[in-house]
Description:
With 361 residues, this protein is α/β, with parallel strands linked by helices. Helices cover 33% and strands 29% of the residues. The longest helix is centred in the last third of the chain and has 19 residues. The radius of gyration is 22 Å and the shape is globular. The relative contact order is 0.17. The structure holds nicotinamide-adenine-dinucleotide.
Amino acid sequence: xxxxxxYVGELRAAPGPLEDxxxxxxxxxVRVGVIGYGYWGPNVVxxxxxxxxxxxVAVCDKNPAALRRAGRAYPGVHLTTDLxxxxxxxxxxxxxxVTPVWTHxxxxxxxxxxxxxxxxxxxxxxxxxxxxxxxxxxxxKHLKIMVDHTFLFSGAVRKIRQIVDAGTLxxxxxxxxxxxxxxxFQHDVSVIWDLAPHDLSIMDxxxxxxxxxxxxxxxxxxxxxxxxxxxTIYFPRNLIAHxxxxxxxxxxxxxxxxxxxNQMLVWNDVEADEKIKIYDKGVELTSGEGVYDxxxxxxxGDVWAPKCDQAEALKVELGHFIDCIQNDKTxxxxxxxxxxxxxxxxxxxxxxxxxxxxVVF
Length: 361
Ligand SMILES: NC(=O)c1ccc[n+]([C@@H]2O[C@H](COP(=O)([O-])OP(=O)(O)OC[C@H]3O[C@@H](n4cnc5c(N)ncnc54)[C@H](O)[C@@H]3O)[C@@H](O)[C@H]2O)c1
């Protein structure tokens, strides 16, 4: 069983304005209220309940049927349709916002204004201006924001991060991620805002450089919102990333290729075992005798499959959130990480509207 603290120690320190801030009175248990008990909320609630250093105090949903479901699963937990029961309660230290994206800003803002730490779903906000305002508010109130970039806490991504950081792949050439399946269609956001935050946050976590430019193309076939998209992100030093998200695929594909000068990695998240494979393969060009005489040599060596931790990503992540509150640490997916992703999503919308016009950062 993985210790969330051990994971935190594995990672580069996330830079951010919340770092080094003295926060008095770290208590034994962080008391949590969850807003939103639809599709994803039950996962957050279940994992909060599973943590030793957190206490699930209340679940709020404006839909009484959702609350009845929560009540059957967690008898004794305070259930409410009234937001202020959670936002104003002196018995709650942290609020998880697990509602549709267009509600994130108002709910997170109200929680911060009432002195609560905030765990907010991806994508962080609907606009970068909202994200900036929340970061500023949290900083002023000495509170934590953590954005649910769940995959960063999966065994696979943690392993890939170690491999990339150790330089095993060599200088990176590209990151190429495919996340396609049939549905789940969302009525309020496009496939870019729904699925791409996963791939973009993984990319952001693995590549320390900041993007220089972005190009997005895609299509909408049903309700006017993009249901498939191809996003290309340009980084310094000729590193390129590509993300393909699609709700209209007959099959589910979750594959990421990461190639470096020395080795190449394939992560297939639908595999039960051996999700990650590393190929000792590469190409080298060397010049022959004449100036135009280039020789191509292909290297094809061993393939190995590193073991990945099986712990549930959301449990590791929520454990990290609680640890950050108790020990005044900066969350790995803090508000700034959330803001970086929202900026990419906005750029993708702009580029898509102009049929692939390049957006330079
Ligand atoms: N991290 C992940 O892997 C992951 C997976 C799925 C969804 N999500 C994110 O979770 C969020 C919620 O998605 P979902 O699929 O659960 O949506 P959903 O529509 O199934 O559920 C949202 C719930 O929030 C409730 N709600 C909405 N506004 C409210 C308000 N003002 N006060 C109280 N309750 C309110 C609704 O009644 C509903 O029960 C989204 O931001 C989505 O992107 C994240």
